[in-house]
Amino acid sequence: WCEVLSKDSLLDILKRFVFIEKEEKKDEKGRKSIKKTLIFPRYHQLDAVRKLEENARIRGAGQNYLIQHSAGSGKTKSISWLAHRLANLHDENDNPVFDSVVVITDRRVLDKQLQDSIYQLEHKFGVVKKIDKDSAQLAEALTGGSRIIISTLQKFPFILDSVAELPKRRYAVIIDEAHSSSAGQSMGALKEALSAKSLVDALRIDEETESKWEDADEEILKILKKRGPQENISFFAFTATPKAKTLEMFGTKGTDGLPHPFHLYSMRQAIEEGFILDVLQNYVTYETYYKIAKKIEDDPLFEKAKATKALTRFVSLHPHNIAQKTEIIVEHFRNVTMHKIGGRAKAMVVTSSRLHAVRYKQAFDDYIKKNGYQGIKTLVAFSGTVNDGGIEYTEASMNNINERQLPDKFASDQYQILLVAEKYQTGFDQPLLHTMYVDKKLSGVRAVQTLSRLNRTCRGKDDTFILDFVNKAEDIQEAFKPYYEKTIIEETTDPNLAYDLMAELNAYGVYLQEEVAAFARPFYKPKSKKTYKDISKMNFIIDKGVERFKELDENTGLDFNSQAVKFVRVYSFLLQITPFEDVELHKLYLYITYLLRKLPKDKSSAVNLTDEIALEYYTTKKTFDGSISLIPGEQSTPLPPVKYSGGKAQDESADYLSTIIEKLNKRFGTDFTPADQLSVEQLKEDFAQDDDMVNRAQNNSIEDFQYAYHRAFMGKVVDRMDQNQKFYMRVLDDRQFAKALMDMMLVEVYDRLNQIPR
Questions:
Q1: pTM for this entry
Q2: What gap in Å lies between CA 83 and CA 108, rounded to an integer?
Q3: I need a surface site. Which of 78, 169, 586, 753 has the fewest CB within 10 A?
Q4: How large is the angle between the packed helices 513-523 and 216-227, nearest 10 degrees?
Q5: DSSP reduced 3-state for 359
C-alpha cells in the first residue's frame, strides 16, 4: 500500500486508471437500465501495466511480452489500460514509441469496453477504431493514423488492391488470449503486413522489387526475415493458459535459458484472493459399464481401431445411455443445483459431438415434460446443421431463438441448462454457471479452459460442482497442474525438427528436388508479370506429385500425409522463434503447403456396426466423489515443447467382430453371468406371454406403453424369484440397477410385442 498510495502513484491512478464503467442491464420485460461502477485497478493490473509501459519505453519496439493472468484477473480492463498507456508512450526524447496500438481479440465486448474506458481516460472520442467490415477499413485506420485499432487476427492480413503509401511505422500489438492460433501462419501473415514499409508491400509481398523477380531465393529470404522477430513490432500477449508454443514465441528468456512470462497473476493467487472459485473442490466421476453382443451369426473381420471406435460410439449414442445420463443430470439439477445461488444457478452439459448435443436436447426436453417438471428449460449450442435420420437440425431451430440471442436468453431466469458441442467452452463468462456435467473426453489446456467456465464469482455463489461421466479425476488434476502457478516449459523446441521431417518426406519419393525449385520460381513472380501459363506450370508440377502419391499403398500414403502436415505446422511455428534463412527448406514448405491442398482425401469410411450388434447390459456407477484441488507450493508440471517422433499411420490390423466385442466388454463389462442373461430373456418372454401387455404395446406409442411396462416389471421379477434368486434380489434391492435394466429392456420388449401377430 505504501507503493500504491504514494503521492505520484495515487495521482497517476486517479488520472490514468480510474474511470466509471457503464453496463447496460435488461430486466425480464426488456426494460433497459444503466449500471455505473467506479473502477479502480487491482494491484496485479497496476503492476503489470506500469512494468510493461516502463520496459517498452526503455527498450522500444521489437520486443515480445507474455502476460500470464488467470481467468478472473480482469484482462479486459488490463488491456484497456495498457492500450491507452502505450498509445501515449514517449521515449526520453519525447518521440512516440509506437505509432499505433493494434488490439487483436475475438471478444465482441472488448471493443465497446475499450472505447468507453479510453474515452473517459482521454476525454475525447475517436481514439479507438474498431475494424468490423473489411481490410479497406483496416488500411484506412492505419493510413489515417488511428492510435488504437481493434480487430481480429482473421481480418488482419491485407487483401486490398491499391492503398496509399505508408511510411514504416512502429506498432504495439496486444493479443487477447494468445494461443496456438498466434503461433503459426496467421501470425506470420500479420508480421508480414506490419513489417512492410507500405501497405502495397503488405498486400503484394512478392512485388517488393519487381526488377529482381527472377531471383526467387532472394524473395524467400526477405519473407523469412519478415516472419521472424521484427524491430518495429512489439507483441503483448495475454493468456491464462499458455501453451508451450505461446511460451516460446512470447516468453522472456530467463537465466535458465528457458522462456518465462513477463508478468504473472496465477490461478492460485486469484483463488486465494477470492476473485475466482476453485472448480476442482467438488468433483464426482461416474463410470459406464456395458456389454455388447453380436446380433448376426457371421463373425466378419474389421479394422480393430475403427471397429472399436464404432462400438463405443454405438454405446454413447444408444438411447439407454443418453436416457440414463439425462435422468442422472436432471435429477441432480433439481435436487441440488437449482437451489444454489438463491435459486438462480445454471448448469452446462458438455457433449462429445454435435449429434450428441441434438440427442441430449431431445432427451432432456422429453424427460422434463414426461415428469411434469417446472422451472427447468434447456438451450443447445452447436455450429452448422446436424442430419440425424434424414432430419436436419440447427441450433436456432431447436431453441426457437436467434443464435445471437442465446447468451442473453441463457442469462435470464427463463433458461437453466445449456447443452454444448464445441461452443461456449472457452471465453464464455456467465457467473450463474454453478454445475457442469461432462460427457466428453477432456485433456490438457482444453480441460482447464472448459471447466474454468464455472469459476466466475457472483453474490451468493460460494462453490461449484462437476459431474464427469468420461474422465478420471486424477487426469483432470494433472491437466490443471501446469496452469495453477507459473507455467513452465521443459525445454525449447529443437530447430532441427524441421530438417528431420524434411528428410522423412524426401524418402517417400513423392516429389523431386528440381520440381520443388521449379514450383518456387513462378510462384514468386510479381502478380503483374505472372501469367496463366505460370499458374498452369505450377499446377502441372503439383499434379506430378499427386500422381506419385496415388501410387503409394494406403498406409504409406497416410504416413506421408501425416508427416507433411507436421512439417508445415512445425516449420511455420519455428519461423516465429528462430531466425531461419534456409531457402531450400522454405521452398519445400511452400511446395508441401500447396501439395496438401490437392492430395486426395482419405476415403476409408468409418465402420457402421449398428445392424450387427446389440446392447445387452448398461449401467453407470459413481466412482469418485471429493476434492481434487491442487496444493499450493507443489512443483508445477512443465509443458513439453513442440516435438516430432516420426509418427506412422495408426495400426489398422483386422480382428473378428466377436474378439473386438469381447475386449471391449472386458474393459466396460459387469459381472453378469450366463444365468443372468437367461433371466433377462425369461423376463422378455413373460411379457410376450402377457396378452394385456401385448395389446398395450400394439395400441400405444412407446412413451405411453412404458407406464404400464414399469408397473408390470417388478411383478414379473417377483414371479421369477425362485429361478435366479441372486440376480432378482439385486433387481429388487438395487434401485439404480433395476432402473437401468428396465430402461435397457424397454425398447426390445416393445419391439418384440409389436411383432406378435394380432
A1: 0.71
A2: 17
A3: 169
A4: 80
A5: helix
